[in-house]
Specification:
single chain; alpha/beta; D-Maltodextrin-Binding Protein, domain 2; 2 domains; ten-stranded mixed β-sheet; 13 helices
Amino acid sequence: MKGFSNAHERRDNDRHDTLPRIGWAERRGCIASLIAGAMVFIGSACVIANAFPDRPIKLIVGFGAGGPTDILARTLADQISDGLGGKVIVENKTGAAGNIATQAVAAAEADGHTYLIGASPLAVNHTLFPDFPVKYGRDLTAVSPLGATANVLVVHPSLQVRTVADFVAYARTRPGSVSYATVGTGSSSHLAGVAFDLRAGTSMVPVNYRGGGEAAKDLLGGHIQAWFAPIPSVLDAIRSGQLVAIATTGPQRASGLPEVPTVAEMGFEDFDVRLWVGVFAPAGVPAERLGLVEAAIGRAMGSRALRETLETQGIAPLAMSRVEFHRFVVREIERWRPVVAALKRQ
């Protein structure tokens, strides 16, 4: 046994002597290569696991198909789909002044595949519906603004008023008799009327309509006296002389009506009532995914198709970063609290 053992040891030693000897530097290089290979494998696995988007992205709109917000959403979807490398679809969830869509997005999985095309009612609803369970900043977060549009105060020619001062004098002498159209409680047309009453000391009567078409028909027929109307809805009637444009409600003159002054210019400093539109996400979406979507929207805002859609709808682009847009929404929520409180007293 001893002889066998010694022979065995000699064979092992002979075999080891024939193997190439590897120094420490070479061993270290081999180890580094193995680690690098493992890291590449792990990194590739993470990329596959975190591929985004890995299914269609949804843009949820709280208003009906064919409206300005819906048209803007569909154009945006077309423009960002290529940039994100995936399909983008638009879903309409109407009702409750946009709250149904807002709640659906807030309840969605925070994985970056569901977004709300939200508008100014989102800020108004914080005060208008205090029991609504979704709160901006807690359940929703800002991604990117899209644009904003002012309304225009138009009156029937029979009033024989041409300026804001004329209209204020007319309304003050007829408290509770001057009616103006709205397209729903808390809509921009309604808020503009309430804000105007507060600043001008007037007492007008809101008349609710299901849509702008019905409102325009009654105003043209002389059944109501005024309307803080979306500019595209009444532009032809203004140009034909069927309606008189008194003032626009934004901070600057509207590009479609450059000859018409703003309410702020006419003595009501800081008067600003605009319908703005932006993109929101459920709270908790990873920042890198929000960044990708924000960047895709930024590129889309420079496209001809989206610029033309904005112009057709009378919407001016809003250029803000995600942080700036968040601050803007917070200010809007606070700014509308006293106006909504007055609206509730009507």
